[in-house]
Write a structure and sequence with these properties.
By secondary structure, the chain is α/β, with parallel strands linked by helices. It has two domains: 117 residues, Urease, subunit C, domain 1 (Roll), CATH 2.30.40; 315 residues, Metal-dependent hydrolases (TIM Barrel), CATH 3.20.20.140. Helices cover 36% and strands 19% of the residues. It has 16 helices and 19 strands. The strands form three sheets. It has an eight-stranded parallel sheet with strand order 8-9-10-11-12-13-14-15. A seven-stranded mixed sheet has the order 3-2-7-16-17-18-19, covered by helices on one side. Helix 4 links the parallel strand 9 and strand 10. Helix 3 runs parallel beside helix 4 and helix 3 crosses helix 16. The structure holds zinc ion.
Length: 473
């Protein structure tokens, strides 16, 4: 197999950059030793290059998913949680099932989630895994990294967990043993030593990510955890302000709003990104923007759980990095990047339109540019990679890692498009990916990840669902 690749004749290339550089004027990309070394038009093939013909295809950067819970990939559409809001859903689905995951079941769930992402053009995944407890007889962190590596993807473990039991878990059936702070920090340090790579072409990383920091740690431990992470060179992540329950809790326990609580405890900054951030006051949006604290925007999960709509465009305007996460498949049964981006692109327009008012009281119709395709692509590529600290990844330019997807617009869904560059995002649906490349390696061809038997995976999933159903009855 030839190591270097020349991709030629693309109908369009979106770079992942924002503004005028969002679209590349050229059609060819040369990849050597995993890195893009040249972008141009009419490039000539070298003898050592594999040539990929991208005629009638568009090329995007590989997506960067900044928030997921892969173990939930076997918990889609659980009937007891399908019509619930966040807090009762947490009790009915993730907390009820999390103790049923042994090593085998966890591996199958992770694989399903990763394959779903791959088939939507995703090459970098940050998974918020929080099933850690003392005495576990398998190493969940190692399993996650192994599964991602086997599929050729970049992977970041957002190492979750808790040192206290939260009120929602205050039931014998839902409880899970907690770690002490020392156990948690020692485990994060050991995992980071093994898996946290620095350098622009890193394939694996670790972040400190207590599950929901306002309820997972007692107040005195927040600063300690933040300082420990920073001393290890790790970023910070957590769930925050996903529903109004976060506001109720922080008001009652701490006498302030959630983001004010984080500010008091050294949990804001350019090395912090927070999942959801749906319910924010104008002052909190300003604090997040001024401190360059990022968001993992998960619009489908937020809609599914009736949380609301995160003010992602407003956060972006104030200076917060906006990134995209699909969240776990127990609250987003379409946990793939294309459906997430299609939804994000439309959602903020719908919201702006819903808020528009007729003249003379209002401004008439508005909101048609509330989010642009270029902006959505940027959020899900360059912005995400920068937030996670994958410095050489996330946009297409000479010197950057060769992480990219070649989409064939050969489905009737795309017939009639005037601007093919927009196709994968504006038309939505599952795309046909001719080649998905990560670090210069082709890891998926014609929608099939390397070496993977999709039919077998489907049968394994079915068997695990049957076993979970039998355990619950
Ligand atoms: Zn989540």
């Amino acid at each position: 197999m030839k190591k270097n690749i020349l991709i030629r004749n693309a109908a369009a290339i979106m770079t992942g950059l924002s503004g005028e550089k969002a679209r590349s004027p050229v059609s060819d990309i040369r990849i050597e030793n995993g890195v893009i070394t040249e972008m141009g038009s009419g490039l000539r093939a070298q003898p050592d290059e594999q040539v990929l013909d991208a005629s009638r295809c568009v090329i995007y950067p590989g997506w960067v998913n900044t928030h997921h819970h892969l173990f939930q990939s076997l918990l889609k559409g659980v009937p007891s949680g399908i019509n619930l809001t966040l807090s009762p859903w947490l009790q009915a689905v993730p907390f009820s099932y999390r103790r049923s995951f042994d090593e085998k079941r966890l591996r199958i769930a992770i694989r399903i989630g990763l394959v779903e992402l791959l088939r939507s053009g995703c090459t970098t995944v940050a998974d918020h895994h929080y099933l850690f407890q003392p005495g576990q007889d398998f190493d969940a962190a190692a399993i996650l990294f192994e599964e991602a590596q086997a599929l050729g993807m970049r992977f970041m473990l957002l190492r979750g967990g808790a040192t206290v039991t939260r009120k929602l878990e205050d039931h014998e059936k839902l409880q899970q043993a907690t770690e002490t702070l020392d156990q948690m920090l020692a485990s994060v340090q050991a995992t980071a030593k093994h898996f946290h790579q620095t350098g622009p072409m890193a394939m694996s990383k670790v972040a400190m990510a207590p599950t929901s920091v306002h309820v997972s740690l007692p107040t005195q431990e927040l600063k300690e955890v933040a300082r420990a992470a920073r001393s290890m060179g790790l970023r910070l992540h957590s769930h925050m302000s996903e529903s109004v329950a976060y506001i109720e809790h922080c008001r009652e326990k701490f006498g302030c709003l959630p983001i004010e609580y984080l500010a008091q405890n050294e949990w804001l900054g350019s090395d912090v990104w927070l999942a959801h951030l749906v319910h924010l006051s104008p002052a909190e949006i300003k604090m997040l923007g001024e401190t360059r604290t990022g968001i993992a925007h998960c619009p489908q999960s937020n809609a599914r759980l009736a949380d609301g709509i995160a003010p992602a465009p407003a956060l972006a305007k104030m200076g917060s990095p906006v990134t995209i996460g699909v969240d776990g498949a127990a609250s987003n049964e379409a946990a793939d990047m294309i459906s997430e981006l299609h939804f994000a692109w439309m959602l903020h327009r719908a919201q702006a339109g819903a808020l528009s008012r007729a003249r003379p009281e209002g401004h008439g119709e508005e909101g048609g540019d509330a989010t642009t395709v270029e902006q959505i692509i940027h959020w899900a590529s360059q912005s995400g990679a920068q937030m996670l600290g994958f410095d050489g990844v996330g946009h297409l330019a000479s010197g950057m890692a060769a992480d990219l997807a070649v989409y064939a617009l050969d489905d009737p869904r795309y017939f009639g498009l005037h601007d093919s560059a927009l196709g994968p995002v504006v038309s939505g649906g599952r795309p046909h990916i001719k080649w998905l490349v990560c670090g210069g390696r082709i890891i998926l061809e014609n929608d099939i990840p390397n070496g993977l038997d999709l039919e077998r995976l489907g049968m394994q999933a079915q068997a695990e669902v049957q076993a979970l159903l039998a355990m619950q009855s």
